[in-house]
Amino acid sequence: MTETVRLIVEKIRKLEVQGARNVAIAAVKALQALAEETKAKTKTELLKDLQQAQALLYASRETEPLMRNAVKWVIGQVEESSEGNVKALGNVVVSSADLFLKNLEESRERTAEIGAKRIRDGCVVFTHCHSSTVTRMLAKAKQEGKIFSVICTETRPAYQGRITAREMLKLGVETTFIVDSAARSFMGNADLVVVGADSITSEGNVINKIGTSGIAVVASEARVPFYVVSELLKFNPATLYGEYEKIEQRSPSEVWKEAPEKLVVRNPAFDVTRHEYIHGLICEEGIIAPQTIVQVMQRKYPWIF
Ligand code: RUB
User: Whole-angstrom Cα distance, residue 98 to residue 266?
Assistant: First the structure.
């Protein structure tokens, strides 16, 4: 395995690269680096290298179907290619990866444009964690001249909410920062909740940063619409065939560095928000009911099945 792939895997594992989209982008770039650095002499050897990288990337963050879909698609292009020469196959990796990234960017732009229409002047937007898709949507609303404010949670234990808060301030959006447990106290002030997604199941349930499902319940109680903003490729096709999405369990030391001995500290990275709490899934195809995800995927991304 090449050094660049190992470095990227480490960055993903340590959360130096965070958020489903950024993780997928880094993974695709790792495959591009591999294609340029590989010592493979045949198509079989190149595919073996790519599959090794695939296994390392998948294991770096378990709950990331966008990354898995991206890597699978790029490797699929090599498998299907009629090229026999390793150099030409390397070019297939690079160009397919570029195409994937371009399409992903277009999906985010379209999603942001659609979502920005839900932000009205004077609106208070509640968000959790850091989603580059959510912040892009809010940036779009701001560019369109909308005046709104944001409430964001700090998002223990890794404080991704600080990334969101900094981005919002940079955009010139009035931002209030709260501890996660203050979500219920502040929900009454919000007009809508927008969160990102790491995974979407065939039933339309959404897996996102730990704490999201509690916020969805609180939003439902307060009658505040709860939206998920996500590119469709975060759908996990295996869930259609009965698999559960795995929930990544991170190191207890992220929660309490020097915890007393014998204390059981648990640190799941994500939780599941059931579709009945989701007002709409804002994606590149529009605002859809999350339960319709399978039909939408069959129409838009049939290769995923
Ligand atoms: C980040 C997180 C984000 C989603 C969506 O978790 O839960 O809401 O990944 O992000 P972590 P994006 O920080 O553990 O990766 O919209 O950027 O894909």
Answer: 38
